[in-house]
Specification:
alpha/beta; eight-stranded parallel β-sheet; two-stranded antiparallel sheet; 10 helices; binds NADP nicotinamide-adenine-dinucleotide phosphate
Length: 281
């Protein structure tokens, strides 16, 4: 596996293990992910997997410095309180620093000015966490260019990462292009479209052609575009499969076919719309 390098020079393993709903699979499942070779884990206070991850790391015996741990501030942990929220996350994870801390979603009440002021307040707390060495990198999730432009007005340290829903059928080109132009690494949440994508005939065709599975084609689709995928899986077999993606290169035309699929597999979540559906986070 290769690493991506963030603007501040820190490296981040090219595939992360998604932990949303992973607590339902038990600590043992996270131990298996560590055993299979995952060293980069994506958690969030909202997922309630931070303590399970702490226990899995303890059981694995793998040292903290070999791991890249990301967590996120949930919607009720924004504003100045984000600083203490991060400290609580550190306690639950049993570590004294995070590798990456993200604002999980931009504020949304429907009042644009108030929402952006809230995000700036959260980001000010994040900048302090970064200066204080509690986190090695700070970023955002589900921020679109207009949200990022607003944060840029604050000056100081800017997001290193934007975690977005990205998979074939949902490429979010405007957001990805903006991230690239600003040196922000786009990470792909639901890179398998939470398995909604896997029966798409083009994925089946390319899986056959490259001798891979549809899930592996989705992950290659991300990596070849410089998007860091965060697949979640519940079995050792799938965990392995999702890491076994570094021996093929999709042709330019196959990548283009995937990039120009009609819109499909979208979760339905949008940061400027009411509510986050309970099933998507
Ligand atoms: N920032 C955000 O707002 C946000 C939102 C959503 C997710 N995320 C992050 O992104 C991570 C991944 O997203 P996700 O969990 O929504 O969806 P996903 O990784 O796209 O898909 C997971 C689903 O695909 C199945 N799967 C995994 N590997 C497979 C394989 N090789 N073949 C067939 N099926 C396979 C899993 O089944 P089994 O589990 O049964 O194996 C599970 O049902 C989350 O865990 C979380 O860390 C972030």
């Amino acid at each position: 596996m290769f690493d991506f390098t963030l603007r501040n020079g820190i490296t981040i393993p090219a595939v992360g293990f998604g932990t949303y709903k992973a607590a339902e699979d038990g600590v043992e499942n996270l131990v298996t992910a560590l055993d299979v070779g995952y060293r980069h884990f994506d958690t969030a206070s909202f997922y309630e997997t931070e303590e399970a991850l702490r226990e899995a790391i303890r059981r694995s015996g793998i040292s903290r410095k070999e791991l890249f741990l990301t967590s996120k501030a949930w919607m009720d942990e924004t504003g100045a309180g984000a600083y203490e929220a991060c400290e609580r996350t550190l306690q639950r994870l049993g570590t004294d620093y995070l590798d990456l801390y993200l604002i999980h979603w931009p504020a949304f009440t429907g009042n644009w000015e108030e929402d952006r002021a809230r995000d700036r307040e959260t980001w000010t707390a994040f900048q302090k966490l970064y200066r204080d060495g509690k986190v090695r990198a700070i970023g955002v999730s589900n921020f679109l260019p207009h949200h990022l432009m607003d944060l840029a007005q604050l000056g100081g340290e800017q997001p290193q990462v934007d975690q977005l829903e990205l998979h074939p059928g949902h490429g979010q080109d405007a957001a990805v292009e903006y991230c690239r132009a600003q040196g922000i690494l786009p990470e792909a949440w639901s890179p398998l479209g939470r398995a909604r994508m896997l029966r798409e005939p083009l994925l089946g065709e390319l899986a056959e052609k490259y001798g891979k599975s549809p899930a592996q084609i989705c992950l290659c689709f991300c990596l070849q575009q410089g998007l860091l995928p965060l697949p979640k899986a519940s079995s050792r077999e799938r965990m392995r499969e999702n890491l076994d993606i570094f021996d093929i290169t999709l042709s330019d035309s196959d990548l283009s076919r995937l990039r120009t699929l009609p819109p499909m597999g979208w979760s339905g979540e949008h940061p400027d719309r009411e509510n986050v559906a309970p099933d998507v986070r």
